[in-house]
Amino acid sequence: MPNTAPSLPIFLRLSDRPVLVAGAGRIAVRRIGRLLESGARITVVAPHAHEQVRAWAEAGELVWKKREAVENDVDGYTLVFAATDDTAVNAMLAEAANKRQVLVQRADDAAASDFLVPAVVQRDALQIAISSDGQAPTLARILRTRLDAWIPRAYGDLARLAGDFRDIVKARLPRAERAGFWLRVLDGPIAEKVFTGRMADARRDLAETLEDGAQTPTPARGEVYLVGGGPGDPDLLTSRALRLIQRADVVLHDSLIAPAILDLANPDAEFIHVGKRAARHTLPQEDINELMVRLAGEGKRVLRLKGGDPFVFGRGGEEIAQLAEAGVPFQVVPGITAASGCAAYAGIPLTHRDYAQSVTFVTGHLKAGELELSWSQLAKRGQTVVFFMAVKSLPIICEKLRQHGLADDWPAALVIEGTTVRQRLVVGSLVDLPERVAAEVVEGPALLIVGEVVRLNETLGWFRPSMESESQV
């Protein structure tokens, strides 16, 4: 009778242990590949074999017995994999294995198996096994694929670093202090060096920490993460951005950061709104710079979260210049800039072989009521011009572009709250777009796109959220 009790997650060391695989088809190949990595001594019983199994046998990596499986084949093995395409043969082998107290896995019947083979995400020595207990193996594979995309490869390097120093730590630290020590190492500045490709520096710092006397807590050392939050949709965050968002002690965020992105942060973090919007400045830029330096000096991991990309009209260069001057460690994580994200979601290619061979990003932010730009360069055909922060200056922009040679009916569009479920698109021309926008309520972030590519939205626009979805953000 099938056992319905939950399975016990366990990792087996099979090096030089005998394992039997009955069957040599596609499923058996997957099993054998993992078994070879584990160092098991593998015997395959099957009258016919997949070409990969033949290659392994010819290379001496396994023994292939070219015949049908029989009951006595299970004798002397640590594990048995019944992976033939004959249900009766698999059942016979399972029964024989059970009589001999040998664990068996049937490829055709998870409920009748003694153990299950999980979907695995592997990063060097680090392995994450996912199982649905045989209820939904496809779901387990889906989760494996998603985790594989989300978990940085550097976690394997981090595991290897810990393994290299494990015996040294055991020799120098009493058991009660080891967990705290490793927590500081694996979730602190040393780990960040590994994640940013500075393995040699991480090894040096870990060795120095042990030489300096790891019995006492390592003084906290702060760091600043300058992270691009993208144009609004949380799915557009990079995996590194998400990791740093979730580990920050303090979050300094702009006004344009979507609430759904802030919801991803460490719930125990301190949130400080430092946004600047139009003429409303929560904190002057100089105060933001000083705040980051002070918080990092207190040993905190400071997340400076910006909309779009920090280096595209985000004043990121100014902020890290002051961090560098103060000697504060920092790293910069680029984000999808609003121009790229909003244009893609609006179905407006920024470049196109037939309409725009170049793209220019400019700021539409007014200074003392003026907008000093190279209008003669911007008012040219064959290009796309994207204006950031252009809602208030929209009438001036349209008028200047017309004065410098673009036609009255030259296409232009304003993307409002792009990439979110509240996205709206106001399409018009240089002569009528200001009037069309004036009839709208524009409170969220907006981006102006000018160029013939705007016309392509009629056929390429794919993201048209309904207002019913608004509650999702």
TrEMBL record:
Query: Which amino acids does the record list as binding NAD(+)?
Result: 26-27, 47-48
The record's Gene Ontology biological-process terms are: methylation
Q: Which positions does UniProt annotate for S-adenosyl-L-methionine binding?
A: 231, 307-309, 312, 337-338, 389, 418
PROSITE patterns in UniProt: SUMT_2
Q: Which pathway does the record list?
A: Porphyrin-containing compound metabolism; siroheme biosynthesis; sirohydrochlorin from precorrin-2: step 1/1; Cofactor biosynthesis; adenosylcobalamin biosynthesis; sirohydrochlorin from precorrin-2: step 1/1; Porphyrin-containing compound metabolism; siroheme biosynthesis; siroheme from sirohydrochlorin: step 1/1; Cofactor biosynthesis; adenosylcobalamin biosynthesis; precorrin-2 from uroporphyrinogen III: step 1/1
The EC number on file is 2.1.1.107, 1.3.1.76, 4.99.1.4
Q: Does the keyword Oxidoreductase belong to this entry?
A: yes
> From which domain of life does this come?
Bacteria
Q: Where is this region: Uroporphyrinogen-III C-methyltransferase?
A: 222-473
Catalysed conversion reaction = uroporphyrinogen III + 2 S-adenosyl-L-methionine = precorrin-2 + 2 S-adenosyl-L-homocysteine + H(+); siroheme + 2 H(+) = sirohydrochlorin + Fe(2+); precorrin-2 + NAD(+) = sirohydrochlorin + NADH + 2 H(+)
Give the residues annotated as active site.
Answer: 254, 276
Keywords from the named record: Cobalamin biosynthesis, Lyase, Methyltransferase, Multifunctional enzyme, NAD, Oxidoreductase, Phosphoprotein, Porphyrin biosynthesis, S-adenosyl-L-methionine, Transferase
All copies of the Sirohaem synthase dimerisation domain together span: 154-210
* One function term, GO molecular function aspect: methyltransferase activity
Q: Record's CDD domains?
A: SUMT
InterPro entries documented for this protein: 4pyrrol_Mease (IPR000878), 4pyrrol_Methylase_sf (IPR035996), 4pyrrole_Mease_sub1 (IPR014777), 4pyrrole_Mease_sub2 (IPR014776), CobA/CysG_C (IPR006366), NAD(P)-bd_dom_sf (IPR036291), Siro_Cobalamin_biosynth (IPR050161), Sirohaem_synt_dimer_dom_sf (IPR037115)
- Domain named Tetrapyrrole methylase: residues: 224-433
Q: Where is the Siroheme synthase central domain?
A: 123-147
- What role is this protein assigned? Then it catalyzes the NAD-dependent ring dehydrogenation of precorrin-2 to yield sirohydrochlorin. Finally, it catalyzes the ferrochelation of sirohydrochlorin to yield siroheme.
Q: Which family does it belong to?
A: In the C-terminal section; belongs to the precorrin methyltransferase family. Belongs to the precorrin methyltransferase family.
* Protein name (database record): Siroheme synthase
This protein's species is Salinisphaera dokdonensis CL-ES53
